[in-house]
């Protein structure tokens, strides 16, 4: 769909996502080579939002599989509609042979399709499948994913192998709460997604919060950028993500803020941080230091 990396960047920007050149290159190659793309990075850097924007840019359906500890096959791939199967068996009892009944209850009409199977059977042009926070699932689930990631197919014992007619664009995200299996990584292209540079973050804030003045958007991008940099980053357990930057800008607009000052920073710290200790660490004194103009070397 995209003739070049520049074309892809423009498509994502039209969908409200500002990807740098390295990220756009990784996505472009994943599309060209029809390979899954594994995105790792800190929470809030835009991994999930990339899949959403890509679905919009490509005009494809977005299917999302949210991973968690204990995720089961029936929640990721399929399960049988046992109630409908039971009703069919009762209705057919005495009218058909046992073999015929058994064959009929495992027909596709009794199959409840979950995200992985939906992605494989999506009509043209195919779907965008987001396997979100795959690091939260357990290792057996990773092993199950290998067939899908390597061949875009799955095996269902009662039916057989189901292969994608239209290759789904597959994005996996990981916050790196644990190391993923090498077999999963080998089947994917890989990209580490870091916090954006200030100019990119400024573009995102301006696009997402058009009500904010140019000066206020610049202050938000500069302030959050300094929060994430040394030596200030050492004062916090987790730096604010892009989503927090955007939400903070919206809050400042709602408060009719013309310019950020230490008092408004302290009052709205709970938007930038979600940890009690981090909110407490963002004092008026630290905010004053962060708001000082950076010295030009």
From TrEMBL:
InterPro entries found in the cross-reference section: AAA+_ATPase, ATPase_dyneun-rel_AAA, CbbQ/NirQ/NorQ/GpvN, P-loop_NTPase
Designated name of the protein: MoxR family ATPase
SUPFAM superfamilies: P-loop containing nucleoside triphosphate hydrolases (SSF52540)
SMART domains cross-referenced by the UniProt entry: AAA
Domain AAA+ ATPase: 33-194
Protein species of origin: Ramlibacter albus
Phylogenetic lineage: Bacteria, Pseudomonadati, Pseudomonadota, Betaproteobacteria, Burkholderiales
Molecular-function GO term, any one: ATP binding
Pfam families attached to this UniProt entry: AAA_5
Superkingdom to which the source organism belongs: Bacteria
């Amino acid at each position: 769909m995209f003739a070049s990396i520049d074309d892809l960047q423009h498509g994502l920007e039209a969908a409200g996502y500002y990807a740098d050149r390295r990220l756009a290159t990784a996505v472009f190659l994943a599309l060209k080579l029809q390979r899954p793309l594994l995105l790792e990075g800190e929470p809030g850097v835009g991994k999930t939002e990339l899949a959403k924007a890509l679905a919009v840019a490509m005009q494809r359906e977005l299917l999302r599989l949210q991973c968690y500890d204990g995720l089961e096959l029936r929640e990721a791939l399929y399960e049988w509609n046992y109630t409908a199967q039971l009703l069919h068996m009762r209705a057919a009892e005495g009218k058909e042979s046992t073999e015929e009944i058994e064959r009929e209850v495992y027909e596709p009409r009794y199959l409840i399709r979950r995200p992985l199977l939906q992605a494989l059977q999506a009509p043209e042009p195919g779907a965008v499948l987001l396997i979100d926070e795959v690091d939260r699932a357990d290792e057996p689930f990773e092993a199950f994913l290998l067939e899908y990631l390597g061949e875009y197919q799955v095996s269902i014992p009662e039916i057989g192998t189901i292969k994608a007619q239209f290759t789904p664009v597959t994005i996996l995200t990981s916050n790196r709460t644990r190391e993923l299996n090498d077999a999963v990584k080998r089947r994917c292209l890989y990209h580490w997604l870091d916090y954006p540079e200030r100019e990119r973050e400024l573009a995102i804030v301006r696009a997402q919060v058009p009500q904010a003045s140019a000066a206020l958007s610049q202050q938000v991008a500069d302030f959050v950028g300094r929060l994430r940099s040394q030596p200030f980053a050492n004062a916090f357990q987790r730096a604010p993500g892009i989503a927090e930057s955007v939400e903070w800008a919206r809050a400042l607009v709602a408060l009719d803020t013309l310019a950020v000052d230490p008092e408004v920073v302290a009052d709205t710290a709970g938007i930038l941080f979600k940890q009690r200790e981090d909110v407490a660490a963002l004092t008026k004194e630290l905010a004053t230091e962060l708001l000082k103009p950076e010295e030009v070397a």
